[in-house]
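So, can you check these tokens?
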Amino acid sequence: MHKPDRSMNHQTAVVALVNRLRFKHLALLVALDDARNVHQAADAINVAQPSASRMLSDIEEAFGFRLFERNARGMQPTALGVVTLAYARRALAELTRFAEDLDVKRRGGHGQLTVGAIMGAAPDLLAQAVATLKTERPLLHVRILGETSDQVVQLLHRREVDLALGRLTSPLQHNDFSFEPIARETLVLVVRARHPLARREQVTLAELMDWPWVAQPIASPARELFEGELARAGLGTPANLTESASIFATLQLLESFDAVAMLPEPVVRDHVRGKLLVVLPLEIGKSLPGYGVLTRKNEPLAEPAEHFVGLLRRFSQPFKMDDIAHGGSHAAALAPH
């Protein structure tokens, strides 16, 4: 008796799945992953809700298993759904970037480069590298996303950026990403120029706990370091605290009321020189590790990205030497005397 060829049946099933999946299906899965609601996902991809429901049924039929469990709290991905949604997000990001790159080239451009970057890298290293790159290749389309390490690592994981400037944020991420240290990030405590503490020659961390704070989200390395500093000093998290991942919002808040924030020195440098902000005479954040270039493992960079990494290495040299010369801190130079 002839036994069925299991490898042939498997191949037929794979081909059938590939033939049934479409770009719109991927877009719906990503929208559902974001919204966990069919109506909102349908609006996000501009289709009617009944059409979105039928598309989801078609997708689940094609895969042969349920991607979501429906319950009173909305839609929750199944175990296999989590894997499928991660693929859909990566595939959609790749396809979108390919289409954008193709359109740039069609209009006479020279491709694109998308970089994730922490805010501390932007005023110095990133700005110099991008300025040089755009001088050399004015038609290269450059996009910069993210502000904190947890954001840029997530962007890298989702394949929404080619590379990132930041730090690994969990112990196991070295399995997925390569990290090349490239520069240090000095942190300082700042207040607005009219703050009652702005003219103080000495201040303690304990005194600052009575004031409002603006801090990065708890998942960011800088916030983890801040909480560690508080723990070592026997202090609790400030009761009056506003969380913000946006550097623009943080700076606006600092200038609007008597709050304290711990920020990268390059970010506040111009505000300090312009006498809008004042660096408090208290050293903090010495244990924050340097940031570097993050790339996905076992995935070669495209030529524009490889060239950009070379520029980052070139411009990182002055900052590394500056760290050595100043003992890793610029706070003393900016603090009031």
User: Anything to note?
Assistant: DSSP finds 13 helices and twelve strands in the chain. The chain has three domains: 6-91, 93-184+289-325, 187-288. The first helix runs from residue 6 to 20. Residues 321-337 have pLDDT under 50 and may be disordered.
